[in-house]
Design goal:
elongated; 13-stranded mixed β-sheet; 1% helix; 1 helix; mainly beta; twelve-stranded mixed β-sheet; SH3 type barrels
């Protein structure tokens, strides 16, 4: 069978390759595609996918497996004609970023068929490789002379900085500019695409239903959420509509047409090479399979498995989005203003008596939207880690305006979801240390803080004042102006109401002992 290939030469011109390819005796032939399944995992932090990964750079070739933070398990079911006794089978429907150590070949109809050897051939055809293989062999070079094309044939002596040929008459031709190169055949060891090769032993010949599985890099997925918030009658509540999508990147080096698609949820551990950080596997959530073939969820070992109820095509070098679940509407939500006066969290493994530690101040009051993942409210399903983009409806013209985005971790049902949107424009805070005393011999320390909140809005607000008791684990509040909630062993929160165009002050004194 004769094929004509087109590749690019080192001068930037196109080289036409006349290649004769034939299957050797005993080599199996792969029948037409029968069934493909792909299960995708991701090691990306939610929302951390760079937009550059959506569009691979033209001419960059097969992407680096490390550039796409994820992997997939691929399964191909095929009817394959296998020879009796010992034979060779070539299978080229595989990803370029395959991990060859994960490959398995199984005959589903003839369990006595065994794999004696297997290899992955990824030395692909290119102009440079062909030229190197044809050193001291005859080739034909086409070049343009004026408005006409001419050919030079001879033995290739060198392919460094142009081509050097020795003609049939012994003359030497040094060619820097040429339009095409013709090769008589495709030398052994080169493939047109990544290929798996098996040496098989089967007690009988004929068609067998087989299954090929392997792991590949260059594939990932994540969840994207879109929230539309509509403010309520007061400044601290409203309603939101939530829609969710699964985004999938395939840069594995091959397409997966009409494939059965699955996504794994949970922190699946992998043995990584040295000095490689282990990523997290994004969780995937979905409700029961919809009539239109949406995602169906089930528990799978200690993880969750989500199967798309219809087949999907994942072209190579593509990004595809699939709806995760139907839009949930009119979910009650509340706006939370949080003031965390510390410039940055600090904790110590022993009592810290440095007066200046923790004095640096943050003046920003952060804004969050919070809603509950509750079935009664139209949700009630595990939400995968992902990025949430929030828009608010402008009642003046019914337009949607972007107001912030955040990332959420895996959120089980019946748990709250808190989305950070930014910092409040009209509400600010101020935190300062008003007293400090320490007696290291008696092993105690006392510290007093004053937190001022200013509300410049035309309506009252409630602000949560978060404080870390960071100097030591054994503490007690000696006095405070407001009641507080203890979040954990070193964190307390003061809920504070601030009237419109007014100021509120929180004071507390804490004593540490050790």
């Amino acid at each position: 069978m004769s094929k004509k290939k087109t590749v690019r030469t080192r001068t930037g011109r196109v080289a036409a390759l006349a290649v004769s390819v034939s299957l050797a005796s005993g080599v199996g032939a792969v029948a037409a595609q029968d069934g493909t399944a792909i299960t995708i995992y991701s090691s990306a932090q939610p929302g951390a996918i760079s937009p550059e990964l959506y569009r691979p750079v033209p001419g960059a070739g097969v992407p680096n497996a490390m550039s796409v933070p994820g992997y997939a398990m691929v399964s191909h079911d095929r009817l394959i004609k296998i020879g009796s006794g010992r034979s060779q089978l070539k299978f080229s429907d595989v990803a370029g970023l395959i991990d060859p150590t994960t490959v398995t070949f199984t005959s589903l109809t003839e369990p006595r068929t065994r794999v004696l050897e297997q290899s992955f051939q990824f030395d692909l055809v290119s102009t440079d490789k062909l030229l190197q293989r044809f050193i001291d062999r005859p080739i034909i070079v086409e070049r343009a002379v004026g408005n006409q094309n001419s050919t030079v044939s001879g033995t290739l002596l060198s392919a460094v900085d142009g081509l050097v040929l020795r003609g049939d008459d012994g003359s030497i031709h040094a060619l820097r500019n040429y339009s095409a190169v013709r090769f008589p055949d495709l030398p052994g060891g080169l493939e047109t695409k990544p290929t798996l090769v098996w040496e098989l032993s089967s007690p009988q010949g004929g068609e067998q239903r087989t299954r090929v599985t392997y792991q590949t890099g260059g594939v990932t997925w994540w969840a994207d959420y879109n929230l539309v918030f509509q403010a309520g009658s007061d400044a601290n509540s409203g309603l939101l509509d939530l829609s969710a999508w699964v985004s999938i990147i395939n840069q594995s080096g091959t397409s997966f047409p009409d494939a059965k698609l699955k996504l794994i949820a949970g922190d699946v551990h992998r043995a990584e090479p040295p000095q490689m950080a282990r990523g997290r596997v994004l969780a995937m959530a979905a409700k029961s399979m919809a009539d239109d073939g949406g995602f169906e969820q089930k528990e799978f070992f200690e993880f969750h498995l989500y199967t798309l109820g219809r087949r999907a095509t994942l072209p190579n070098n593509s990004t595809k989005q699939i709806e995760l679940f139907d839009q949930a509407r009119q979910i009650p939500a509340k706006k939370i203003l949080l003031y965390y006066g510390l410039a940055q969290p600090v904790f110590w493994g022993s009592p810290n008596t440095d007066r200046e530690i923790g004095v640096a101040m943050n003046k920003k009051v952060d804004v969050y939207l919070e809603f509950r993942n509750d079935k009664k409210l139209g949700l009630g399903m595990p939400l995968p880690a992902g990025r949430i983009r929030v828009s608010q409806l402008d009642a003046a013209d019914d337009s949607l305006e972007f107001i912030g985005e955040d990332r959420i971790d895996h959120t089980p049902k019946d748990e709250p979801v808190r989305v950070k949107l930014g910092s409040a424009f009209d509400v600010g805070g101020e935190r300062r240390q008003t007293d400090f005393a320490v007696d290291t011999k008696a092993q105690w320390l006392e510290e007093e803080f004053e937190i001022k909140l200013r509300n410049h809005k035309s309506e009252p607000v409630e602000v949560l004042v978060k404080e870390n008791l960071y100097r030591w684990s054994n503490w007690k509040l000696l006095s405070q102006t407001h009641t507080y909630d203890k979040v954990d062993a070193r964190t307390i929160v003061f809920p504070v109401k601030v009237a419109k165009d007014a100021e509120a002050t929180v004071r507390y004194r804490v004593r540490y002992t050790w």
